[in-house]
Amino acid sequence: MNFDLSDERQMLSDTLRRFLADKYSSTLRNEVLSDPAGLSREIWSQLAELGVIGALFDEAQGGFGGAGGDIAVVFEELGRAGVVEPVLDTAVLAGGIIADLGNADQQALVEQIIAGELHVALAHGEPEARYDLPYVTCRAAEDAEGIRLEGRKAVVVNAEASEYLIVSAREAGGLRDWEGISLFLVPRDTAGLVLQGYALASRGRAAEVVLDGVTLTPEMRLGTAGQGGDALTKAMARSAVAQMAETLGAMHTACEMTQDYLMTRRQFGKPLGSFQALQHRVAEMLIEMEQARSATINALGHLDGPDRDRQISAAKALMGQIGKRIAEESIQMHGGIAMTQEYDLAHFAKRIIMGDHRFGDSDYHLERFIDLSAA
Amino acid sequence: MDLSYTEQELAFREDVRDFLAEHLDPQVSQKVRTGRELTKAEMEGWHATLHARGWLAQNWPKSHGGAEWTAVQRFIYEEEAARASAPRIVPFGLSMLAPVLMEFGSKEQQDRWLPRILSGEDWWCQGYSEPGAGSDLASLKTRAVRDGDHYVVNGQKTWTTLGQFANMIFCLVRTDTECKPQEGISFLLIDMDTPGVEVRPIVLLDGTPEVNEVWLTDVRVPVENLVGEENKGWTYAKYLLTHERTNIAGVGFCQAGLDALKRLARTANHNGRPLSENPLFAARIAQVEIELMALATSNLRILAAAGAGRAPGVEASMLKVKGTDIRQAINDLARRAVGPYAMPFASEDVEGSNAPLPDPLNAGAVTKAYLNNRKISIFGGANEVQKNIIAKTALGGRG
């Protein structure tokens, strides 16, 4: 057993941390947050040049990493610096599905993603689905004219800036069946595809997506008809690891800011950090941080193993609980200043909390852990 | 011991219900129910409606035009108003400044300001906190120096809630720097139209411009706007804070939040069934409901013991800590109930323009409420300060 980072990952981590410390200021983040695009194209290109996106794919896919450890290193740094750009959505989630299922033509899109030239968004969740993965009501029907998609998708992150959406739709089976879910590549400018975009509470943008008579050629199907479930579950597992690492980085920053503030802010004639009641709460946050790091390591270490989903659920259940505690405690110990939008901590706290709303929240994963442990 | 309501109290509840059914604008209650921001006119309109019925100043004595309700009556109103999604009563003039004026203000001040609070001519805001004086309020630095018939005030106040709507601000200012911090503070009433008063909005983490900084630069305030005696302001400030605490448990807010949470849980899907049928989530809701049932009784019990219109002591701190804990737990569950729909910044964004795609759970406002209500354990004396008060009372002299 060895918990050290490999030389390559250590170098990636150091390079990325230096780049972000240098480039990704609060001012830049606030500009990106208020930009209607929801991301900075310049930063995106620079991240691609640094190899940040390539590190999320393996060599066969045109990258130089792609393992759980690579994902965790990249996303912890992105989270620590509060990067808004949708690396998770384009590279791990959508890019991961294309790399997993795509034919030779479709794989060309992965090269473009790695080069920083293309955004793709996964349009899977539906208004009624909540976190229920196989809950797919969107229909796909094939006839002589092609494949027609009908339905609605909810909270599709980074949809507007994406050239393609990966849309899940049912070709067979009942409402909550895994069997029968297909995945399709849909160019964003396809007739009948309507987006209604909005800002997210913590970062970037998302959209409600209506598919009203979207017609595709059969080449736009990813993988085998009706067999998209495994790729979806795998992409969700990898994305959950990315999300946990991002949250871990954001929690690290929140803890650091809180420690600094408690030693700087004076009330009653002394630093707030000299009050024992607050000292104990900081100590508890740091204890929880260690638990969070270990949970993330458990998850990434099992990403390619047989116990993957149970391990992911264990980690994500714990991360949701710890994240809530650290976000809320950081705000509380700062006091009023942390309630203001322009203060950095508010951004990190929101990201930590909102991280629990992606890829299943802590309750969803607690129940899934129970189910998978019983199986 | 009798937990049942008297005939009169039951009749009073019917009155309140009828009144709300008849006079509450459905469009306004819809905004309250879904967590949207009310306009100044909507808030003033609700005050006027209550005033016409004699129900605006619920804890004022009748001699000043108040309703002089008992603790039970206030609780009944609070419960019914929350159930009906009525706007909250803006407290700054009615339940914060007014009790101070009645107790410590001159006859002239009472005759001048109290009727204007009732009529809505004045909108008051609170000038207590400063950038360097939060939990440690007594360290405030805003200076007021006597110059003939005026005080000249310089300094900065912050977290001034709804200051953007106010025309008057009551301020704690330092009039003596040579003594203990608590002994050199005075209580001044300042017209916000006076030259040198500048209000700058602070955007909170949920995006709302709800609070403000108030900058005071060479603001000349007539000496007749001093309440009580110079350098006795700390006493009045503490008196005000205890009155602020008569509704400190926020039981009505909690009940309205719990009702909304249950509606969400019945609507939200969890693996093909309503979320409300999920044992894990149902247990979480039950836990806060059970806590709230006990809190409602604590609230009544403590307010009844304090007597009509009076304020409780250390128990108020207990009500504040427990009440804010429960309310935040309810906000947290509501956010979790809606799943991924907690992520949009605000539901207004989704519903904008032609709104072909309604946000099915109206969830944007849920996250907004969760984020916004992180403030309730910080303001009005942070919960840590409340716990210090409780501990000091419990352990003081024995340590």
TrEMBL record, chain A:
Residues 226-364 form the Acyl-CoA dehydrogenase/oxidase C-terminal domain. Its EC number is 1.3.99.-. It holds the Pfam family Acyl-CoA_dh_M. Residues 6-115 form the Acyl-CoA dehydrogenase/oxidase N-terminal domain. Its cofactor is FAD. Residues 121-198 form the Acyl-CoA oxidase/dehydrogenase middle domain. One of its GO terms (molecular function) is acyl-CoA dehydrogenase activity. It is an enzyme of class 1 (oxidoreductase). It comes from the Bacteria. Keywords: FAD, Flavoprotein, Oxidoreductase. The keyword Endoplasmic reticulum does not apply. Gene3D superfamilies: Acyl-CoA dehydrogenase/oxidase, N-terminal domain, Butyryl-CoA Dehydrogenase, subunit A, domain 2, Butyryl-CoA Dehydrogenase, subunit A, domain 3. Belongs to the acyl-CoA dehydrogenase family. PANTHER family: ACYL-COA DEHYDROGENASE (PTHR43884), ACYL-COA DEHYDROGENASE FADE28 (PTHR43884:SF20). This is Acyl-CoA dehydrogenase fadE12. It comes from Thalassovita autumnalis. The lineage of its organism: Bacteria, Pseudomonadati, Pseudomonadota, Alphaproteobacteria, Rhodobacterales.
TrEMBL record, chain B:
GO terms for molecular function: flavin adenine dinucleotide binding; oxidoreductase activity, acting on the CH-CH group of donors. It comes from Thalassovita autumnalis. Belongs to the acyl-CoA dehydrogenase family. The keyword Flavoprotein applies. Residues 125-204 form the Acyl-CoA oxidase/dehydrogenase middle domain. Residues 6-121 form the Acyl-CoA dehydrogenase/oxidase N-terminal domain. GO terms for cellular component: plasma membrane. This is Acyl-CoA dehydrogenase. The keyword DNA repair does not apply. Signal peptide: none annotated. InterPro entries: Acyl-CoA_Oxase/DH_mid-dom (IPR006091), Acyl-CoA_Oxase/DH_mid-dom_sf (IPR046373), AcylCo_DH-like_C (IPR036250), AcylCo_DH/oxidase_C (IPR009075), AcylCoA_DH/ox_N (IPR013786), AcylCoA_DH/ox_N_sf (IPR037069), AcylCoA_DH/oxidase_NM_dom_sf (IPR009100), Mycobact_Acyl-CoA_DH (IPR052161). Its cofactor is FAD. The lineage of its organism: Bacteria, Pseudomonadati, Pseudomonadota, Alphaproteobacteria, Rhodobacterales. Its EC number is 1.3.99.-. Keywords: FAD, Flavoprotein, Oxidoreductase. It comes from the Bacteria. Residues 231-394 form the Acyl-CoA dehydrogenase/oxidase C-terminal domain.
